[in-house]
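In this section we turn from sequence analysis to structure. A common task in structural bioinformatics is to predict how a protein folds when a small molecule is present, because the ligand can shape the pocket around it. The inputs are simple: the amino acid sequence and a SMILES string for the ligand, here citrulline. Study the lines below before reading on.
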Amino acid sequence: MAEAMSPMVERTVPRVLMCAPTFFEVSYVINPWMTHHVHDTTPERSGHQWDALRETVAQHADVVLQPPAESLPDMTFAANAGLVFRNTFVPSRFRFAERRDEEAHDRAWFVRHGFDIVDLPGGVFFEGAGDALFDRGASRRLWMGHGHRSDREAAPALAQMLGVEVLPLQLTDPRFYHLDTCFCPLAGGYTVYFPSAFDEASLGVIETYVSPDKRIAVEEADALAFACNAVNLGKIVILNRASADLRLRLENAGFVVIEVALDEFMKSGGAAKCLTLRLDEL
Ligand SMILES: NC(=O)NCCC[C@H](N)C(=O)O
């Protein structure tokens, strides 16, 4: 029987999925961050950092736990399970074989929790909320990154399947291989992003849709510290690290910045946002 989740019920407290890093390690290389870190993580350190993130998120949201699976070290990056919109779950189709066995676990979890599963057309790669981020301003538009992991073809398909406007953004820097590594929509329509990770046309799209007073462009040092990979829960912004300048800009926009060290996960190319998946996208 489906476990009761009531995903359609209007909630005031955000609901966030996380998956413990029990089996997390760097055992293969599918992005530049992983290159020098094969077998360079410890369960103690990743467990400790993940617990700190879970406890921080739990102060501002209901945390729902997905059981991890053995031999799937990247499953802890819950954002990549798929995309949630209302009661619909669009499962990821991973580009690299190393992550494809996660798909069955994620699908089963979302079926079990009462979501409607809607699949992308065959052969289209799509890495879920790693590459698809809802605007948090007045609009429900979806920003979608492509060029490294997800295919551009996923954008019109998602628009049709979900009935939302989808804005594709071309990613150009292999270090910022998922949209959530270099772009973060915040409450009120503010947007943190690293301009150099996008092609010119995509920067033009961002500048068309996000007014200058809402754009928070970061320097490379912040981008490399995964400052764009932030969890935004209302006024709260949880991230690995922010420079004094970025913190000030976020505070001036009304946000409260909370740093949680996640360097063990950065060895795999992920941080706060990648380790979470919003389940209430209404
Ligand atoms: N950026 C994300 O959304 N997730 C991080 C995924 C890290 C994993 N090692 C990968 O390369 O797929």
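The radius of gyration is 17 Å. As an exercise, try to locate the residues that line the citrulline site and compare them with your own expectations.
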